Amino acid sequence: MKSQGMVALAKQCAEAGRKVYYLDTENNISPPDVEMLRNLGVNYHYTPVLKEIDEIFDKNIPAIKADVIIVDSVGMPVLRKFSAMSAHDRGSALLDIIKWLGVLKEWTYLNKSIAFVTNQPQSEFGKSSSQEKVMKKNGKKVKKAPVKKEPVKKVKTETKKIEGTEKRNFILLSWDASEIGKYTGRAPRQAALKAANRGVVDILLREAGKRKVIVRKKEKTTYVKIHYFKGGRVTRPKTKSDPEWMNDPVSTPTAVKMGSVWVPLHETALKLAITGTK
Questions:
Q1: Strands (E), the chain
Q2: In DSSP terms, which residues pair with 136 in a beta bridge?
Q3: DSSP string covering 154-165
Q4: Nearest to 53 by CA among 32, 36, 73, 68
Q5: Distance between CA atoms of 157 and 28, rounded to whole angstroms?
Q6: What CA–CA distance (Å, rounded) separates 16 from 10?
Q7: What backbone phi and psi angles, to 5 degrees, belong to 74?
Q8: In this structure, what is the dihedral angle of CA atoms 266, 271, 272, 275, given to the nearest 10 degrees?
């Protein structure tokens, strides 16, 4: 289809009085079409030989006086030899294609003309080894079995969380175990300082979601951990490094840890459980 399209394009340009140079590297054009193009004045040239094609781009094309150049196609001459080439020759062949396209680009710029280049819709350059390869042998198409690939082993990756870097939720409790507030922090003391800044003196913090179950005499009891802090505030003179909006003296919260203890989940007498006094 692409070769027929290029023939139709060359015919239209020649009939419009344009000078056309047609480089055919595939020989997919019928003899009547070739004769028709030549009768219209198209400079038609066919060669599948890489060396000759390279010489045409090096010597002929820069000197061609034409309005239109058609190359059909740029990839097939390399593709024919690609499988038998060494790794070095393959790299050189691909660089040759880049050079040919560069020559055409320079020619179109210098001559204020246009060039049309075709290529194979699908070639060995873009095929994966899992696709079926169709080869021609003695005029017949022979299908090659796809290359079997070993299954890719999936590697499990685990992201370890660094202890002490995540914010935790702490519930502020009264002595009768009522929930009276909620604070966050990377450690219990950070949450306690926030509570002390609000004026709380007896700071009882229960970490949300942290509990353990103890079985005694076939009975399960759920325990939670209570952190006990004494909150307060201290003052200091204002320094130059402090923000302007701060009062002088500066008041900062303090939280002194008195201890921690595991108590039953529904325990209400926390003072007795923690301090031993009513």
A1: 20-24, 43-46, 68-72, 114-117, 133-137, 140-144, 168-173, 179-185, 202-216, 219-236, 250-264
A2: 141
A3: PPP---PPPTT-
A4: 73
A5: 54
A6: 10
A7: -85, -25
A8: 130
- Say how far apart CA 19 and CA 42 lie, in whole Å: 7
Alpha carbons 188 and 186: distance in angstroms, whole number:
7
Per-residue DSSP letters for 60-109? IGGG---SEEEEE-SSHHHHHHHTTS-HHHHHHHHHHHHHHHHHHHHHHH
**Helix crossing, 31-39 with 2-15: angle to 10°?**
20
Residue burial 102-120, b: 16+ Cβ < 10 Å; e: rest: ebbeebeeeeebebbbbbe
pLDDT digits (tens, 9 = 90+) for 256-266: 999 888 888 88
Residue 199 structure tokens: 């004026």
pLDDT at 126: 47
Q: Answer for the pair 222, 196: CB distance below 8 angstroms, yes or no.
A: no
Count CB atoms within 10 A of the CB of residue 29: 20
The SS3 call for residue 5 is helix
Quickly count: other Cβ atoms within 10 Å of residue 14's Cβ. 22
pLDDT given for residue 219 in this prediction: 85
pLDDT tens track for 124-145: 444 444 444 444 545 555 556 6
User: Which pLDDT does position 164 carry in this prediction?
Assistant: 60
In this structure, of 52-56, 250-254, 264-268, the range with the lowest mean pLDDT score is: 264-268
- Rounded to two decimals, the pTM is 0.44
